[in-house]
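Data follows
____________
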Amino acid sequence: MALQRKTGLGKGLGALLQNEDVQMPQRAEANDAGAKEGSGGAAGSINFIKIEQIAVNPFQPRTDFDEQALRELADSIETQGLIQPITVRQRSKNEYQLISGERRLRASKLAGIEEIPAYVRTANDQQMLEMALIENIQRENLNAIEVALSFQRMIEECNLKQEQLGERVSKNRSTVTNYLRLLKLPPAIQAGIRDGEISMGHARALINVGEVDKQLFVFQEIVDKGLSVRMTEILVRNIQQQSKPAKAPVGKQLDFQYQKIEDDLASRFSTRVRVNLKNSKGKGAIEIPFDSEDDLSRILELLDW
């Protein structure tokens, strides 16, 4: 028999379950009444559970939640009710732990809802971690660093190999490896990825730069100049090819003034620029190397050619 409810949940769930043959969500207390001590809603069922009885998921891979988006979701829940149930596991008679749906849970709290519909599942800690990760990757668009950290946790805490992890999250091994390699980048760059200053494409290019100081230099160029992924790849390639700049002849080392000109031009053209002095009177030449016709076109564009 369908449970008739008139609560602050709104009409969302009820509107979807008009068919009298469909079992409406039951109160957790109702299920508890006929269960053994320590059990609650039947695994696989949908129950209305008091929010105060739901503990957050300690394995939640997402750390940042957009407050404005939460407020908008809360407004929607106030009007329409929570349409999509969260998923929990039962720890004791009146105690549950969230598996997935933390945004929905947080927004329901903001909306002042006292109880919400939830799927009750049986899951151990490893399954909790895996389900939380997969649910977030598929629905919450984790940033690349959060994904990488979650992958690392699954490998370390669930004793998975990269191939096994790939199977769990439906990604090939090379994709998993690329995410994990992000964690080898300097903290400042990881923060830039997390905060959306650079994309995953930029990060993949930076991984190919060996030295930390050069990685930080390229990162700053991306942020300051708004370099595209393609321009970043060209800059990285030029740095790699010219990692050992030619030494100036003895007695003709560049003084500070000329070195600064080199650095400023290198920054402008996103490639190493050489100032070659020919004699003590200051005669010389400026050399701007290019890697391809496209690279030459890019440089000529900057020169307003």
Remarks:
- Residues 125-139 form the longest helix (15 residues).
- Residues 1-24, 30-40, 248-253 have pLDDT under 50 and may be disordered.
- Residues 248-305 form one domain.
